[in-house]
Amino acid sequence: MFCQKCGQEISDNAVMCPNCQTSSSPAVGKTAPKSYLAQAIIVTILCCWPLGIPAIVYAAQVNSKFASGDIEGAAESSKKANMWSWIAFAAGLIVVGGYAAIMALGAIASQN
Ligand SMILES: [Zn+2]
Q: What is the pTM of this model?
């Protein structure tokens, strides 16, 4: 990799540039945690958007926090995005299941 400050080529696992003593960014050489953005958008569209919104907000934070060098924050947002996606998905299932139950009861009631 190359030093972000002076452009000097330095070893991939160097924590500091030997040329200008700038510590290399912790983000260099690491990949961003999964953002779950696609998952968050899908549950927001298909299920219930009030619960999908936090999933999208956290998903959007993953890459921006990672880009600013906040690796732990990015990992935390990634976890929360995944969690909210599942909450929205579960709530969507309950709503759809409840609606189906009401329709079934209505169909049964109208037969009598
Ligand atoms: Zn340097």
A: 0.63
